[in-house]
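Quick illustration, no need to memorize.
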Amino acid sequence: MSRIGKLPIDIPKGVKLDIQGSNVSVSGPLGNMQMQIKGVDLVREGDTLKVVPIESEPNWKANWGLMRSLLNNMVVGVSKGFKKVLVIEGREYSVKADPKGLVLNLGFSHPVEYPLPATVKAEVEERAKKITLVSPDKQLLGQVAAEIKAYRPPEPYKGKGIRFEGETIIRKVGKKAAGK
């Protein structure tokens, strides 16, 4: 039995949930999202939503918890939103906000221009070298953050690069210190 699938989804005030067969759309103050569900039925009881598996479907146990998590992420996303913070380490590295997206100077011969999707908003603190990404779509937000980080992942010797806030980089000892 799925421990996650059993949990009900609380629908906060201001969030509208519309179920049309296998299509679910959720709209709230931060936007609207749509998804097609499979392998589960939805039962709405007041301000809660229960996900009930269809046991005749293949992989029903796997889909039960997955669909509940995806639906919960949609409800939380349109009501509160999700946030990821990237920190840029390195003296010569910098970031600037552009109307189209972000302009990253990461030690390459050219600046890297990263266009942001429409639902992802970025706030840049140039002095602290922080990028705060905010979006109602958790999957898209993680994908954008991972693509930005992939331009210059943190290296283990000096710790330079782009990392998530709170992420610890395991540092290695250099050749000079190791030989003593």
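The two ends are 56 Å apart (CA to CA).
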